[in-house]
Specification:
seven-stranded mixed beta sheet, 28% helix, alpha+beta, binds biotin, five-stranded antiparallel beta sheet, single chain
């Protein structure tokens, strides 16, 4: 869809832009590519039921509605990969190096988190109808709550200058939608290779935790289904949320 036929709606305060966009989907008013940007979010949601905190007017708080009918429900990782690549392209336009995807969809600069993605889906019968793609990027915030401050970073902290958050939000939206269009035209192997090329700790030994047991293993990539692949004395693969990173 051309950039000028979609809407980029700026909201003052919402509980969660994902909830807001999901409300639009459920009311039957969804349009592919429409985006909802909030200046303030009071109950921002992170992955795994966590809270996403964001200081008022300082960050990107964005949800994009995507029509996913062209994808099978079994292929949800395809969308995650495309959205992650869109976010990486966007971040690389502001930050020159060391931008990586920490599996499955954290946006990292060096060993710190600059943003995250939360995708929520609407499936009817066997058809994946819509996705609400929520993205939070730390832009001008320089103080984080103690529980996350040691592993969070903002673009301002990386680049030493302030950014126009709304302008960046629009650019992020364009980058993500471009990669979703690419999903329709490009062999997924190419997209997966690009995702793996940006993978945090690729070919490095890391510590992971599964059911309270911490173990060391080497990251070898991510499979077409989105499983994390590792190798130590044997090859392993992990589904989403089966393991946690120990940083
Ligand atoms: C994570 O890393 O846990 C994912 C964070 C996703 C946060 C964004 S901010 C915009 C959208 N609205 C929400 O409530 N969450 C996502």
């Amino acid at each position: 869809m051309p950039a000028d036929t979609r809407s980029f709606i700026i909201l003052n305060t919402v509980d969660s832009t994902n909830n807001y966009a999901m409300g639009i989907v459920h009311s039957g008013m969804a349009v592919h590519g429409n985006a909802y940007f909030a200046l303030e979010q009071t109950e921002g949601k992170g992955r795994r039921g966590k809270v996403w905190k964001s200081t008022k007017e300082e960050n990107i708080i964005l949800s994009i509605i995507a029509n996913t009918c062209f994808l099978s429900v079994k292929h949800q990782f395809k969308l995650i990969a495309a959205v992650s690549l869109g976010c990486i392209d966007f971040l690389k336009s502001s930050v020159k190096e060391n931008i990586k995807i920490k599996w499955p969809n954290d946006l990292f600069y060096d060993d710190t988190k600059a943003g995250g993605i939360l995708i929520e889906n609407v499936v009817k019968g066997k058809v994946w109808q819509w996705a609400v793609i929520g993205i939070g990027i730390n832009v001008n915030q320089t103080e984080f709550s103690p529980d996350i401050s040691s592993h969070s970073i903002s673009l301002k902290q990386i680049e030493g200058k302030d950014f126009d958050v709304i302008g960046l939000g629009k650019h992020l939206c364009d980058c993500v939608l471009k990669h979703i269009e690419d999903l329709k035209q490009t062999n997924f192997e190419i997209i997966l290779n690009q995702y793996n090329a940006s993978l945090y700790q690729l070919n490095k030994k890391v510590k992971l935790k599964k059911k309270n047991i911490v173990f060391e293993t080497m990251i070898t990539g991510v499979s077409p289904q989105g499983q994390l692949l590792t190798k130590d004395f044997m090859e392993r693969s992990f589904d989403f949320d089966e393991v946690e990173w120990v940083l």
